[in-house]
Prior knowledge:
The complex is a heterodimer.
Chain A lengths: L2 H33 L6 H19 L3 H28 L6 H23 L13 E3 L2 E5 L2 E5 L5 E3 H23 L1 H11 L1 H6 L4 H23 L11 H14 L4 H21 L2 H18 L11
Antiparallel strand pairs in A: 1-4, 2-3
Chain B lengths: L1 E10 L2 E11 L4 E5 L6 H9 L4 E8 L2 E2 L13 E4 L11 H11 L4 H10 L1 H4 L11 H13 L5 E5 L7 H16 L3 E5 L3 H7 L2 E6 L2 E7 H6 L2 H6 L3
Parallel strand pairs in B: 3-8, 3-9, 6-7, 7-8
Antiparallel strand pairs in B: 1-2, 1-4, 4-5, 9-10
Helix pairs in contact in B: 2-5
Amino acid sequence: MEFGPHLMLAILEGAVGAAVLSLTALGLSLVFGVMRVVNVAHGEFFMLGAVLAWFVATALGGHPAVGFVAALVVAPLIAGVIAAAADWLILKRVEYDPEATIVATIGILYIMQQSALMLYGPEARPVEPPFNSRIALPWVEWGENGLALFYPWGFGTTTYKLFVIVAAAALLVAFWLFLTRSRFGLIMRATQLDRETALAFGIPVERVYALVFGLGAALAAFAAVLIVPISQAHYLMGGDPLLLSFIVVIIGGLGSIRGTILAALLIGLSDGIISVFFSPTLAKILATLLVALVLVFRPQGLFGKKPA
Amino acid sequence: MLRLEGVSCGYGPVQVLYDLSFEARPGEVLCLLGRNGAGKTTTMKAIMGLLPLTSGRVMLDDTCLNERPAHQVPGLGVGYIPQGRRLFTEMSVAENLEIGLMAGGKGRTTRERVLEMFPRLRERLSQRAETLSGGEQQMLATARALCLEPKVLLLDEPTEGLQPSMIQLIRETVETLRDQGVAVVLVEQRIEAVLSLADRVKFIENGQGREMVATEELRADRSLIHTYVGV
């Protein structure tokens, strides 16, 4: 395949990863931004979403679309409820102390991981996509007779991958509207900006924390349901999304929603392109190097604010 | 009426207030006066429920405020204008007011009434709070607290860093509220402002309540001010 179509293919693959990563990292960034909690268990809520998607799809049977749509609703809901309960039972008890919450979320990570191993098992299991037609993509090239449209061999994608990109983008837009236009979005932003003043104006901060922790987990679970028909559900699958989410929120700026989404696009796309042209390992090395550079030269991240 | 009965509290193991008692009556301006670090701001936070009491209680009429979760205190009629204003700086003026309206008030009616008091804010509703001048920020902080339609208003150093015209506006606002029957508890360092605005003064020294005197008496004899404030 020529360079142009090859690059376009890499960008498409990267866009799928960026779409899923932006949702996952958004959850992590949201929790840190509002609660100042570094949620080490975030990747396990991603894993929980994937595992629940398999359970739901298997339990319902029938056409794959039925199980998939049900999983898109049920998995984030269950993950959100479990996260809110974990917040109420554990994080609230340690009074959201930054160090204590890191240890507590490591505990939550192992509890969830080992519970998944016991209940789901060690196998990686696929979830069938609701639709997965192959689409051959056209390419334009300047030839002897002017511009010519042709279909390079192997240059294409699937309808499901395009759906993942569109669904993630739609959810991001919906989340942005929710955050900027809704009453609860206003309450969340007020809590993020100044916890004490929010409390002095009648905002039940602890309830907001529980909801935000649940919402962060639900976003990760939703992302996992989207990706599980392309990858597979496995009880150890939470590690990579957690690492990439941390990379994204550090580069974007801890707590910055805009920075998180832009950094997810940057990391996701570069990951796709470098993986296709070179190797996935090199992509991870470069992403980690970028984190190191950001930490040295701009510790607050590209869009974060310097602490006063 | 707001009443503190033997209030003790602090920050973790560090106790700041010791057995502090006073009351603020409807339609009066009570000023808390003392040196830096005496515990004035801590008193405000204790009333708002932002610090847990180790002993004593804070009563608003017949309601014990410290038995309620902190987020319920504003809804019971206690407005707070913190030191440094503490606006939600990345939000617009309208959103800051919306936060104030969430805890109390009568929605659109209250909002209109507050904007009539501070017409300059109406012109800047969509502007981010951080882009306002210092005086406008103080207007917004005051307006946000008034959105609650408070029975008691706590003002912590409202004139800090403001130009004279803004100080006059804050002063007029406090007088209007007093005339409307609101109990105003004021922390203020500018002695002349205290003497011209307050009805009574409660001195605080090292976290302990000292004399409560009528401002008229202080105007005649400033020795207590010299003792507890050092000026």
